[in-house]
Amino acid sequence: MTIQQATPTPVQAGSAEERRDIVQAARAVFAREGWTHTSALDIAMECGRDEATVTHYFKGKEQVLLAVLLEGAAAVAASLTVIAEEHLAEITDLEKDLVELGHAWLTPLAAYPEHFAIVRHLAAEVASWPAGVVEMWRTAGPRQANRELARRLARLAERGLLSFDDPEHAAERFIQLVAGGVVQGSFHGALPLADFERDAIVRAGVADFVRLYQPGADR
């Protein structure tokens, strides 16, 4: 593993800016090298500081990983919350509006490439990750986004546009049907699909979702 040492940036010791620089550097290294092949020294070199500075803020790379994952997960979940609110606040054509939501739901793949690169590494390295880290990431990221989407889908059910007993399950199905194929097919954004292919997956997923949860549907 080769990491080019950055030029040190003079920052007051113990500052919030210094800690932020360490987290940003760690995100870049974890995205590039994964958890297994990253050390505290690698992170220090990436941000142009010594290893002691990293360990001043974090006892080990386990704590750095948790900080990086939770920050990224929160940012993605916040972005998806805004997307859900914008696209479900006013419905004029249910299927068309859900297609637009589906496309928007996928935009974080490109907006947060380092976060999703770390998620890709997770699949290969999860057995060696610190206990509890994956569960905390799921809670702060995917589950939070699912809950926010569920709240807004429940409003559509209250208006009679959809019908379900469990909004969170319905939100999970929406994500699986509409976004899941694109996420898997693009390896969490590493190999973006062609526009026509992504659109076909989203439209098919929305059609399935609407058939499943339309009022009066046989479930």
CATH class of the largest domain: Mainly Alpha
Question: What proportion of the residues form beta strands (DSSP E)?
Answer: under 5%
Q: List the uncertain runs.
A: 1-13
Number of strands: 0
Task: Estimate nothing, just give the exact number of structural domains.
Answer: 2
Distance between the termini: 53 Å
The CATH architecture of the largest domain can be named as: Orthogonal Bundle
Structure description:
The chain is elongated, with a radius of gyration of 20 Å. Helix 4 (61-88) packs antiparallel against helix 5 (94-105). By secondary structure, it is an all-alpha fold. 70% of the residues lie in helices and 0% in strands. It contains 11 helices and no strands. The protein has 2 domains: 1-59, Orthogonal Bundle (Arc Repressor Mutant, subunit A), CATH 1.10.10; 65-213, Tetracycline Repressor, domain 2. The termini are far apart.
